[in-house]
């Protein structure tokens, strides 16, 4: 019958070796790092990422402006080229009136269901080029949650790999100690001469 004694590596007993104590304390540190350190580091990183994303979005909103334009023509050979707001889009020439009254046009991505003459929302930079709209709050939260999650997962993996390395070193030392002790004890048990 096998009996398991919890915490025997931390208590003083004649069978306890130095490698046992190191391994036991390493397990305690690993548990703290996995259950407290990794989530805390992930939360701090997510908070930092949220602040950085907020700054980027604020800069995008200051550099970009929104106009309501009408679709003039589909770009030559335009095929659907991706997703725009969850639906397929293509490039088309759009025209709008600038605040000074001049007519302007550019090529912009518009939803695939758009026809000639339809009004679409277009975001422009300071030079009048079509750019994607600034990120919204959902994208900011998604960005910060992704950064925080990957940081927590990376930290946990690093801690587990370090723990594995410490256990490997402890096991090699333990086996070396057992070999050394057995080399001293074996001649007395087997009555052989070394």
User: What letter string, H or E per element, gives the SSE order?
Assistant: HEEEEEEH
Spatial gap, N to C terminus: 35 Å
Q: Quickly count the helices.
A: 2
Rg calculated over all Cα atoms: 33 Å
How many β-strands, per DSSP? Answer: 6
Largest sheet: 6 strands, antiparallel
Shape: rod-shaped
Which structural class should the secondary elements be placed in? alpha+beta
Outline the secondary-structure elements.
Blueprint: H1 18-63, E1 65-74, E2 83-84, E3 87-97, E4 103-111, E5 119-124, E6 130-131, H2 137-190
Helix pairs in contact: 1-2
Can you describe this structure?
- This protein has 194 residues and is an alpha+beta fold.
- The chain is built from 2 helices and 6 strands.
- The protein has helices spanning 18-63, 137-190, and strands at residues 65-74, 83-84, 87-97, 103-111, 119-124, 130-131.
- Strands 1, 2, 3, 4, 5 and 6 form a 6-stranded antiparallel beta sheet that branches.
- Strand 3 (87-97) and strand 4 form a beta hairpin.
- The longest helix is centred in the C-terminal third of the chain and has 54 residues, at 137-190.
- The protein is rod-shaped and about 105 Å long.
- The mean pLDDT is 84.
Please outline what is shown here.
This protein is an alpha+beta fold and 194 residues long. Helices cover 52% and strands 21% of the residues.
List keywords for this structure.
194 residues; alpha+beta; 6-stranded antiparallel sheet; 6 strands; 21% strand
């Amino acid at each position: 019958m096998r009996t398991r004694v919890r915490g025997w590596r931390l208590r003083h007993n004649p069978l306890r070796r130095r490698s046992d104590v190191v391994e036991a304390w390493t397990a305690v540190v690993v548990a703290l790092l996995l259950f407290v350190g990794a989530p805390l580091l992930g939360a701090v990183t997510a908070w930092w990422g949220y602040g950085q994303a907020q700054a980027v979005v604020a800069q995008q909103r200051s550099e970009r402006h929104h106009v309501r334009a009408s679709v003039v023509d589909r770009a030559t050979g335009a095929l659907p080229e991706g997703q725009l707001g969850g639906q397929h889009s293509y490039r088309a020439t759009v025209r709008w009136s600038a605040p000074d009254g001049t007519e302007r046009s550019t090529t912009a991505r518009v939803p695939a269901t758009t026809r000639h003459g339809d009004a679409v929302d277009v975001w422009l930079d300071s030079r009048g080029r079509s750019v994607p709209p600034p990120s919204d709050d959902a994208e900011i939260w998604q960005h910060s949650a992704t950064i925080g999650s990957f940081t927590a997962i990376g930290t946990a993996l690093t801690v587990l790999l370090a723990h594995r390395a410490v256990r490997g070193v402890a096991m090699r030392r333990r086996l070396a100690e057992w070999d050394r002790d057995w080399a001293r004890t074996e001649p007395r048990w087997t009555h052989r001469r070394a």
